[in-house]
Amino acid sequence: MTARYAVYFAPHESTALWQAGCRWLGRDPCTGSRLAQPEVEGWSAERISEITASPRLYGFHATLKPPFVLAKGRTAAQLADAVQELAAGLHPFVLPQLAVTSLDGFLALQPNANSTAQLRTLADACVVELDGFRRAPAAEELVQRRAAGLSPRQDQLLVQFGYPFVLDQFRFHMTLTERLTNTDAIRLSPWLREYFTTALASPLLCDAICLFMQERPREAFVLLRRFALDIR
User: Fold this and answer.
1) pLDDT at 141
2) pLDDT tens digit sequence for 85-120
3) Distance between CA atoms of 156 and 162, rounded to whole angstroms?
4) Full residue range of the structural domain in which residue 22 is found
5) Beta bridge partners of 226
6) With a cut of 70, which residues of the chain have pLDDT below it?
């Protein structure tokens, strides 16, 4: 099977946000271990596990360079070197305040829409500068992406970068759930806001980007390596 790689923002393992996010999703992408998820009044443990299944597979993160298969002739070691070089030329910054919001039916941590310029710069650099490592998607994948309904601009980005929600269509988010009904989202949102209150109270520094890998389809992504920004 062919491995997939992705470049993510992930809070440092020592932060309260990383620990709270991993516990909520029920998995630590650094160790691969399953974690006991918190109890939510009015929700069964099985239901909480169910609505966090996809985010748990990908790990607690925000996507910068979406998952891709390596292009022919490229190696994982070359990719790691390129990510390290890219990170060394980028400057650390404090993330804007994050909050639990609804994103197209998914609950996620998102920043204020008016304070995302530095995040957009970071994501754009990852998407563009690392694109030579990405194998073009198969025709079936393009069909699947288009089935969700894309704008002309999103379709253009899909063809150019293999994913429709990059560059000017990028929205920084840390996914917390599957797509929920409006009723479930309204029920769960207040609990999640309370759950993340302490973890979001302190400023969060974006001082690294992370290389994740999925060894085989349907297997969980693991954090391979963290690359510090501006290491000079």
Assistant:
1) 87
2) 999 999 999 999 999 999 999 999 999 767 789 999
3) 9
4) 4-228
5) 210
6) 1, 113, 231-232
Q: Is 65 helix (H, G, I), strand (E, B) or coil?
A: strand
Q: Any long-range contacts for 42-47 (C-beta under 8 Å, 24+ apart)?
A: 42/187, 43/188
Closest by CA position to 4, among listed 215, 219, 160, 223: 215
CA distance 109 to 87: 23
> Structurally, how many domains does the chain consist of?
1
Residues counted in the chain: 232
Residue with tokens 């001082």: 207
Residue 66's nearest CA partner among 150, 141, 15 is: 141
196 neighbors 189 (Cβ within 8 angstroms): no
- State the CATH number of the domain containing residue 46: 3.90.1140.10
Contact 119, 109 (CB under 8 A): no
State how far the alpha carbon of 33 is from the alpha carbons of 22, 175, 192, in Å: 10, 19, 22
Distance CA(145)–CA(126), nearest Å, equals 21
